[in-house]
Amino acid sequence: MLEVKNISKSFYKHEALNDVSLHVNKGEVFGLLGPNGAGKTTLIRVINRIIQQDSGSVRFDGNLMTQNDLQSIGYLPEERGLYKNMTVEAHAVFLGRLRGLSKADIKIKIDYWFDRFNINDWRKKRIEELSKGMAQKVQFICTVLHEPKLLILDEPFSGFDPINIELIKQELIEMKAAGKTIILSTHNMKSVEEICDRVALIHQSKKVAEGKISELQAERKLGLYAVRFRGSMIAFVNALWTGFEIVDKTILGDDRFEVSLKMRGDNSFDDLLKVLIGQVQMEAAWEMLPSMQDVFIDVVQPKQEEVNNA
């Protein structure tokens, strides 16, 4: 759906993007991650032809992107750009017309989305009367009103309470199921893990990682496992003997524990299960993979030896 190839962009002496390349497949949710100032928003603006790159190319649906392709893209910027003196309904009509929709189509789509997001009572309210979360709902609706092939969302969860974050996430999951392609730039790592298929991490103007969530997590796993069980902690420790090292433990209740541990020597996950079965009542056991929060920190935080050598 989208191919970004060798994009570079500088503002005066500041290098915002340095030879960034990535591709987004049709029908996937692609996460664009990185700390503030890394270059994510600059890249999104290049894709949307808001600013021109210094070098490199953007291809949309197999061809070099043109201005006409923007009709097939829905863009929710991080900075909110609603006209405060317009009513909610008038604003949606205005932006729908800009995207080439007829008044009749706009009415049908507005009725659908306003009902879905439960904001019918706000149709005649001015934008300035809305809460931040309500205004965010309106802008999201305006972004998807023309049913774009590609949806680009820059920090879409900002300003939402947990209930509305779940609402937007469910909408994105349904859009993906319907074949839409979504680029999601966010600091909400929990949402990244739940809905993104692949991600790219940008740090200090460069792409430093790209791949499936599971691949990025597996590359950084530390060989840790977790066990949740009922029974005696003494019996649990005795069963492990010298083959496994306990890293941490949590008391969940009377005679109920969750323990993280590391294998020693050539011991495997099967060996762990064999020594525990019959000694304690097992509830669950699993390999502990780093969260996307851990992956993010590992990529962007300088290692101690780098700090010492700086």
Descriptive account of the structure:
With 310 residues, this protein is of the alpha/beta class. It folds into 2 domains: 211 residues, Rossmann fold; 67 residues, Alpha-Beta Plaits. Helix content is 35%, strand content 30%. The protein contains 11 helices and 14 strands. The protein has a 6-stranded mixed β-sheet with strand order 6-7-8-3-9-10, sandwiched between helices. The protein has a 4-stranded antiparallel β-sheet with strand order 2-1-4-5, covered by helices on one side. It has a 4-stranded antiparallel β-sheet with strand order 12-13-11-14, covered by helices on one side. Helix 2 crosses helix 3 and helix 2 runs parallel beside helix 4. The longest helix is centred in the middle third of the chain and has 16 residues. The mean pLDDT is 87.
Overall, the morphology is globular
- The CATH topology annotation of the largest domain reads as Rossmann fold
Tell me the strand order in the biggest sheet: 6-7-8-3-9-10
Low-pLDDT segments: none
β-strand percent reads 25-35%
Determine the CATH superfamily of the largest domain. P-loop containing nucleotide triphosphate hydrolases
| Helix percentage range | 25-40%
* Number of distinct beta strands: 14
CATH architectural type of the largest domain: 3-Layer(aba) Sandwich
Distance between the amino and carboxyl termini: 41 Å
Radius of gyration: 24 Å
Helical segment tally?
Answer: 11
Please outline the major beta sheet.
6 strands, mixed
Q: H/E order of the elements?
A: EEEHEEEHHHEHEHEEHEHEEHEHH
